[in-house]
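quick one, three chains, predict together pls
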Amino acid sequence: MAEFFQTTIHDYFNYWVYVILMMIGLWAVIAKNNLIKKLIGLSIFQTAIILFYVSIGVKDGASIPILHHHDPAAHAVSHEESHHKEGHKGDDSAAHKEPGDDKGDNAEAHAVNPDLIANPLPHVLMLTAIVVGVATLGVALALSQRIFKEFGTLEESELLEQLKGGNVDG
Amino acid sequence: MITKVLATFAVVITGALLLYGVSDFPAFGDPHSPANAGVEGGAPSISNYYITKSYEDTKVPNLVTSVLADYRGYDTMFETVVIFAAGMAIFAILRVFSDEDDIEPNETHSEGNTFTDGDHSRIIVGTTVRLVVPVIQLFALYVVAHGHHSPGGGFQGGVILGASFIIIALAMDLDAALARFSEKSYFRLASVGILIYAGFGVLCQVLGSDFLDYGILQKIFLTDGPEMARSHSMLGVEVGVAFTVTGIMFAIYANLSSRGTLKSAL
Amino acid sequence: MIFAFDIVILIFLIVAAVIALNVKDLLSSSMIYGIYGFLICLLWAEMGAVDVAFTEAAVGAGVSTVLFIATVYNTRRRSSD
């Protein structure tokens, strides 16, 4: 019984939390009255989706998607690299090749095992998503400032009253 | 109040359906899921090609940079254009050029970069920022240039460089930051960034190959083989991306914090 | 990929998200949004996505929080809910 829970939690707990975060963000966009709170909810929704996407490329025991470079001058740099990550086990081959093998970069004379390197494709797509997300957040905040300048309030209920009743030119 | 009840209801139903759908996912961290290893007898996973063959195609150890700037370079170019368009949109929405229709003027701040008269609490922050900003900018340039071998690249370096101007604007006045990085400068820098990126593509076309096919640039860079030409062109387009992101990040901050006037600010 | 670390950060994420949406002071809300961004950056660094974590730290937790605070400074600071 405990074994079953262990497997289920290890496999699916992350996805449950991503769904919960998405729903928190979605609820904030629909139900909150203040425009800035709605924008924060939208941002939470967006980061939950990016989190879900990046976790597709996670592999147990895999290292970061930066290959080791066996240039003797760069050997110190690449070792710096491998100490940034904690907990990776299948660290590909820092000890296999001698540094002075032949000239320069022959790091891939031994084959790279794809099971030991995290999947780089979701990282690439989500880099784009994050930066575009902050640019559109800037546009949304600019629109909020214009709304405040025109109507004097950022609460949705008061805005609706003004639009229906007095301020017709909007 | 009725909105909150309906919203809760809708969100609970959607959440329950999504949680039910989660049970069909492959296990978290599985190296043999269809996204990581492909389907047996079906489509192979392209990530395996990127992991195994990307170094011999481009000689760049950072797989994310090589996929971002070379294999998926078209996406990155349009992403840069989207950032530029967002900066233009904020400029169009907020920017006012005259002083008459400013509703509530904020209280006057100390002007320029003289932060010693009157407001003594700014001495510590101002002096520290003056010492630290050159180091931040040097680090940003390092991140851009070293994106092939370590985590980094054009976007990260550009944001850090833009943030170095934002910190000047926060610690001193917005006028101090604008004296160093004026409105003309940052918009020109942003445009030059996109020009560099698209320019690489057109250069490849002029030399006879496809748009953004960097291998043909070995004739210009005089390398032996297309791999190093691809590596150098990746650095070139990353520099273009960094320029655009720097300009637009500071443009967004300047317009948002001063409500478009660029006069009195945070 | 340490799994216990994952669980703890995810629980903190949910707590931070709920708090950011429920405080009435918008300045505090923006700052807790900054905390949320840093926690997500930590989660990605632990998952092996170092480029994404770098970008999120610079963009999401840094610049995005500053833009929120700039907007709150220019509009009203209290919200009704």
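Chain C has a mean pLDDT of 92.
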